[in-house]
Fold this protein.
Amino acid sequence: MSRPPDRRADGPKRPDAAGRADGPKRPDAAGRASGSERADPTDRARGRGRRATREVLARHGLRAHKDRGQNFLVDEAIAARIADYSECPPEASVVEIGPGLGILTRALARRAGRVVAIEVDRGLVAALRKEGGFPPNVELIHADALEVDLAALATRLPAPVYIVANLPYSISAPLLRWLLGARSALVSWVVMLQREVAERLLAPVGSRAYGSLTALYRAVGATERMGPVPNAAFDPVPQVESLVVRTTPTRPDPLHPGELEALEALLRAAFHARRKTLSNSLRGAWPWGDVPARDALAEALAAAEIAEDARAEVVSPEQFVTLLRSLRGSQPR
């Protein structure tokens, strides 16, 4: 008597005890196939970058300092993309803030005619100089960027001058303000920031994220979102997300000489108590001498077309500039 055909030979695969059929591996929750199919080219490239970073640090007895916000970029493709975000021409000079171990520096050197990298960490500077690997168009400076006269540095470099920076999260706010002071010498600056800080720069008027730094930046230029940087592109992997933004100063400069500092003081007073009306917030933290009388402040608000019961978060940067000039008796150019 003949045996019945074995349906397992060419029929549907029978599930195993876990309910899985034999056949191609299914992707995991991250979309990666198991086994040899798991690592894609990007993962492998980042793995090589991560190993190379750790090897360099180990050779020089260094480690990433959490208190300095040191997370080293290990993805060369992302470094090249950030360099491209600057849109600098081949004859341009680029000042890089915080080169780390130089992955972005080398990407910038391939695009720009001159790169000046400013690094505050003595150990990293020594390691970069011993390792070499920078092309001749790169100059490495050991300095605290906040103590560098950026405008003076820009004037000695071949124009046009751009900034590209991976700003340490712990000191991003003062560095962002420092960049505004040199805006007249710069075409633009591209910075990688903690997403929360970047979103504040991009926040629309009336939103909860809109604040004094937003208004200060918007008063003198345009900031645009360029793109996110995944956590896996760094070593150590940070706990926060990163976003790259680009700021282009307005030409001609919309502020009078010396007005940036005055506007900054006004904005800090305006936003120091967000739940109060702008009028009450200003009176509670008035930055210059005697607090103006309520009638005088009301007139200045009216001149800027700001309602007496308005809060700072609904006032545009242009209105703040007009308010500043009304309060100080200044006239637009």
Summary: The domain at 66-249 is CATH 3.40.50.150 (Rossmann fold).
